[in-house]
Amino acid sequence: MSEVTAGRGFGEGPLSRASALIYTLLVVEGMFLVAAAPGLIALTLLGRDASNVPLAAACALPLGPALSAALYAVRRRSRDLTDLHPAAAFWRGYKANVRGVLKIWVPWLAGLAVIGTNLANFAAAGVPGWWAVLLVLVAVAAMLWVANALVITSLFEFRAVDVARLAAFFLMRFPKATLGNLSLLVVAAGVTMVATELAAAVLASAFAAALLWNSRPMIAEVQEEFTT
Question: How far apart are CA 107 and CA 88, in angstroms?
Fold first, then answer.
């Protein structure tokens, strides 16, 4: 037996770490679905009609705090199979961040609802076609911005205005991370269009893990430059 193997305790090997990650993602997914259930149930009852855009935004209110708690729990997961408490971490993150997240999430949802309503009624507005392209670009930029904002407000304690500024700053600061998040956005949109909103929700913990992975440079810089 090698010295490395001999010095490694139970729950510290590669297989154990992989098992710990899978277990954490499964538990966090379950907690996410519980926390987001009111909004998800309401969303499934809404038809895919243009007039329901504001209602869909209202139904999405619980998703922000739930996703933030998932980010918190996955980030603070233990890599030791013998020391896993993902459910406790999820609810600890939920309670700690719910107010801060809603300060970001609610205005973002309101803005997205306005954009969605305008696009849904674009033909009746009588405005040039390029205006629709501009609205779509603004919506995509807003989604990328809120992804950064959720990561920052879930892992750090900043005022909402500072979170907003940092989230916008890091969009251009780390273009590779932004492109990675754009890919996640495309996948989530594709899953929702092909299946249902619930299909994307079932993958929420995996998306949270991928978002954290893409955000590593941003998280490191926030820790080094903006925290003591």
Answer: 29
For residue 210 the two structure tokens come to 């991928």
Which residues make Cβ contacts (< 8 Å) with residue 123, sequence separation at least 6? none
Measure the CA–CA gap between 186 and 147, rounded to whole angstroms: 13
| Phi, psi (deg, nearest 5) at residue 128 | -60, 155
Q: How is residue 106 written in tokens?
A: 């609610």
**Distance, CA of 101 to CA of 198 (rounded, Å):** 22
pTM of the model: 0.89
What contacts 24+ positions apart, CB below 8 Å, involve 4-7? none
Tens of pLDDT along 52-105?
888 999 999 999 999 999 999 999 887 666 678 899 999 999 999 999 999 999
Segment 132-171, tens digit of pLDDT:
889 999 999 999 999 999 999 999 999 999 999 999 999 9
| Domain boundaries, given as residue ranges, for the chain | 3-225
Q: Please list, in sequence order, all residues whose beta carbon lies within 8 angstroms of the beta carbon of residue 143, skipping any fewer than 6 positions away.
A: 112, 185
HSE-up of residue 86 (Cα within 13 Å, Cβ side):
24
